[in-house]
């Protein structure tokens, strides 16, 4: 008689933590409950691009993204942001000097429906996600952590686009740069340069 014996050993373990990434739990001692992401949109095209030239593809995506308009008074938003340049506010969870909270304040001042909250993705519920090349005055630049876009980690940052220059750079206003300062500042010729492991996306309300 031949006995066939097979042994299967399964080792269960936890994945290693991401090196050099400081993670904050902003939900501790909070009553926040994450909401479903039902209102975000991503600009796409239904055109069959397989037989199209590079120029045709570029024109197709440009028309598609430019069709997404702002739903608020951009000039009023930018005016408030500019009026705060050089001023500082308290920082910390949900404090007015934080970069994202400041951007919310400016957009809402113009009548924008910034109703999302929670994490760096859920915050943009109702907004349209675009690429940096599509940026227009009134758009928000968000640095996202690629490995976990919904996490608040060191490097996440939010900025308001107030102008697009002829050389392709952006004019932006931001708060809390450097971190902890709560300072509102502007950069007139800005090119997104997110930290390693992050990328920059555009959100349009």
Structure description:
This protein has 205 residues and is of the alpha+beta class. 17% of the residues lie in helices and 19% in strands. It contains three helices and seven strands. Strands 1-2-7-3-4-5-6 form a seven-stranded mixed sheet. A hairpin with an 8-residue loop joins strand 5 and strand 6. The protein is globular. The termini are far apart. The N terminus is likely disordered.
Supply the key terms:
alpha+beta, 7 strands, globular, disordered N terminus
Helix proportion of residues, in percent?
10-25%
Task: Report the strand count.
Answer: 7
Order of helices and strands: EHHHEEEEEE
Proportion of residues in extended strands: 15-25%
The spatial strand order of the largest sheet comes to 1-2-7-3-4-5-6
Mean pLDDT rating: 79
| Number of helical elements | 3
Strand pairing plus helix content: what structural class? alpha+beta
* Shape category: globular
Radius of gyration: 21 Å
Question: How many strands, which pairing sense, and closed or not: the largest β-sheet?
Answer: 7 strands, mixed
The low-pLDDT segments are 1-38, 44-63
N- to C-terminal separation?
A: 74 Å
